[in-house]
Amino acid sequence: MAKQGEPAGRAGTAEGLGRHPADRLRRELGTLDATMLVVSSVIGVGIFLTPGTVAALVPDGRLFLLAWLVGGALSAAGALANAELGTMMPRAGGDYVYLREAFHPLAGFLVGWLSFFVIYAGTVATLAVGFADGLEPFVALSATGRTAIAVAAILATSWVNHRGLRAGALFNTATALLKVGTLAALVAAGFAFATEAGVPVAPPGRATAAVGPLAAALALPPILFSYLGWNASIYVASELRDPGRTLPRSLLLGLAACTLLYLAVNALYLGALGMDRLAGEPRVGEAAARALFGEAGGRVAAALVLLSVLGCLNATILVGPRIAYAMALDGLFFAGTDRVHEANLTPHVAIAVQAAVAIALVVLLRRFPSVLDYTTFAIVLATIADVAALAVLRRERPAWPRPFRAIGYPWVPGLYLVANVGIALAMAIGRPLECAAALAVAATGLPAYVVFARRASR
């Protein structure tokens, strides 16, 4: 039974914290579904746009590739921690549940509030804007036209996920497999063409300028943004058929596939463009394909960007509403957000709320870098809190069953924690406006929590 003053469904037992008693979502997702959800969530617009920003901050080919490997390793350390948390508490809502159990309902609420309104809604907005901008090689659009396309993309993918979990999952799996296969083929064809045609492939080379610690730290946020989504399956844990096995497999297999693919793609970029051309290039994927295959290659790459962004947008819209849904189950969100569609069995109200917030962000934050930093800072804060929650629950809930235990604990999670604290500080120094915006959104959760908690306690 929950303690006095706690939301319904909070208190756990020696058997752990299972499915919320009021959760009506169906267990329909298997290992392939969940793994492809991670893959599709990770591989979106970032890998086609952010490498130029990273190269400008780290102007050394070897360090550039190392930075992407470090980003994958940091994400893997976070995935190990989240795999333990998620199998111990296989509920909808992810880190909202973990922090609520480890610290206090307020801590869970603030992270859930931040995750829903900044991380997921911000990512949906970023992807929708990226999709609209990706149409530029095919059709001329005004600023108003791009905004309209972005809004339409949000509405269309939200409607797909409103129609049913299977519809969203099947669309996600199909687009994930298609874009992974296409990216792998592009890398293989790119290096093969360069070798056969005698196109010079630039070696990694030496730095054109010193790489300071602040520049190196600021290079990690766009990389971490490109890895955003590695924890996607924790938010749908109550919809996994066998969360104890499926959840850790999906996180680790999906992230491993994405890391290997990212290293291969960035090696191709470096080879096709060289460090000087790569640094600052806003559309790296198209530029590299054009350098290797001419204008036709550029158009193929532009089409691949659209496919990738659309798949990632669908995955993000599938995942994000589960946070608001989980909070509403405990009475800590707007009334009615926990409703499940009678026929489709989807959290349709939460899907609609996320779509409305994302559309507002599209209108307010039109520049891609602004949305990127605003979102990434929130991701860093949330994942820091996750790892701290793991340490607390290891101490406070030792009897709870853990189908998966974080490998390398406490050193690997500790390294992740230290690295992310450093990144957060570097972002606060280098991107103060965007970081302040994320913190301001989190702060709005304080009065909201007071209102919701009073209502839930009645």
SSE blueprint:
Layout: H1 31-42, H2 46-49, H3 51-57, H4 61-88, H5 95-102, H6 105-134, H7 143-163, H8 165-197, H9 213-227, H10 243-278, H11 284-293, H12 295-319, H13 321-329, H14 348-364, H15 368-396, H16 411-430, H17 432-443, H18 445-457
Helix pairs in contact: 1-8, 1-10, 1-12, 3-9, 4-9, 4-10, 4-15, 4-16, 5-6, 5-15, 6-7, 6-12, 6-13, 6-14, 6-15, 6-17, 7-8, 7-12, 7-14, 8-10, 8-12, 9-15, 9-16, 10-11, 11-12, 13-14, 15-16, 15-17, 16-17
In whole angstroms, the N-to-C terminal distance is 16 Å
> Which architecture name does CATH use?
Up-down Bundle
The fraction of residues assigned to DSSP E strands is under 5%
The CATH H-level homologous superfamily: Amino acid/polyamine transporter I
Q: Which structural class is indicated by helix and strand composition? A: mainly alpha
Q: Which fold name fills CATH's third level, the topology?
A: Amino acid/polyamine transporter I
Encode the helix/strand succession as letters: HHHHHHHHHHHHHHHHHH
Shape from CA axes? globular
Rg is 21 Å
Helices, by number, come to 18
Number of separate strands: 0
Number of domains: 1
Mean pLDDT: 86
